[in-house]
Write a structure and sequence with these properties.
With 365 residues, the protein is an alpha/beta fold. It is built from 13 helices and 12 strands.
Amino acid sequence: MRTGALRLARSRRGKALHQLPLIQEANLNRKEKRNGFIRVTTTQPTIETAGSWPVMLTPFAADGRIDWHALDVLTDWYLAGDSQGLFAACLSSEIFQLTDEERLAVVCRVMSRAGGRVPVIAAGAFVSGGECTPAALAGAVARLADTGVAAVVILTNQLVAAEAPDDAWLTFAEDLLARIDGRIRLGLYECPVPHKRVLSARLTAWAAGTGRFDFLKDTCCDFAQIKAKLAALAGSPLRLYNAHTATLLPSLRTGAHGFSGIGANLVPHLYAWLCRQHRADPALAAELQVFLTATYPVVSLHYPVAAKAYLGLHGLPVLPVSRMNGHGVETGDLAALHAFHNDVLVWEQRLGLVSPFAAAVASRR
């Protein structure tokens, strides 16, 4: 990296963040230091409809440290794959295995690299130590919002215990919202770890009615529930992005706004095409849906290790290294990934798409 191209962020306690490289000046429109962090103030596009939002991977070097150069190339690759936006800190990013400082650094780095070309959202507003009260969580949301993300995504399982009823969740959520600056745009993510809390249609209607939420990553994997949620949020700013490949096309036809699942970490351009072109060519969209559903076992193989291996096989400087899954890539896994890629090449030709790998490799030169 070029000398002078980075700035050192500092924590709210004044401690250096282990010299994590956060901001590349060339990619910024303006910088503003706020609450001890350098905020990326590129103009953030609004969260619009019909597109693919990859749940970004975090590349690691062989020693387990974050590979910042690989993260830059990976960001370019997602954008070359026609991604509508980027979910920069989520379960696929291994947020539970990152430190507080690393999570913020990853978000800032992705925003810097994206440079306002697409909106960037992020989860990871965690309370470090102590009870997760509405006041404490609101403080964590504010710190993440200080990075300048288009929306801070709250995990639906953060608010109350797994066995708590919806009324308890709603009481916490209302208290939390009252403590968050109204200028901060929010999202919701039905994260399956450590437990999954799927929003009911009633809670979805509440979130939609507040006018504060723009993004819902739905992981219920049930079309009937998705349909009910879409009815509940109709006419509001809240948009539903389905994480479940098998129900994606039916949900899009019913009004879902796009995809935000792990498949976009291997073939973002195919998911983007399906989200945006399914009405223009319904027969071809149905064929693509069958392919994406049938190959999901390959996509999810030892996730995220095999997904990272797939990227590395095709030109990205991404190693099959994960902090949350130590499984290695075996010979049979590589054969499945190669066969999958051969099918992807056929689909690129059928859809008239340029491979994002070509663009990402060119960006490294």
